Amino acid sequence: MIWEYEYFAMSVTSSTKRPKPERVRLDQAGRIVLPARFRKSLRLAPGDAVTVTLDKDTLRISTAKSALDKAQHIMRQRNPARRSAVAALIAERRTEAARE
Questions:
Q1: pLDDT by residue (tens digit) across 25-60?
Q2: DSSP state at residue 56
Q3: DSSP reduced 3-state for 8
Q4: Which of 1, 54, 5 is CA-nearest to residue 25?
Q5: 22-52 as b/e: b if 16+ CB within 10 A
């Protein structure tokens, strides 16, 4: 049996056209099936992890890759000189070892 609640999923294509909405329905367990064209566009396969975020009245589904890309972008902004954290840690440990 399908619940009466309906949600709209938006296309993730990079086209300049307005994204085409697609209607999906919740089943009794509260699950939705992502349309095949969305899964294909995002290169999602069965068992892949996604992140679900509720932003006011909008449900956002993000891939693990997009979350990683976002985290890397944030870290690049915090380290504009692109210094290696590993090299800094090794240098710090060597300095401490020389003191002992």
A1: 999 999 999 999 999 988 999 999 898 899 899 888
A2: T
A3: strand
A4: 5
A5: eeeeeeeeeeeeeeeebeeebebeeeeeeee
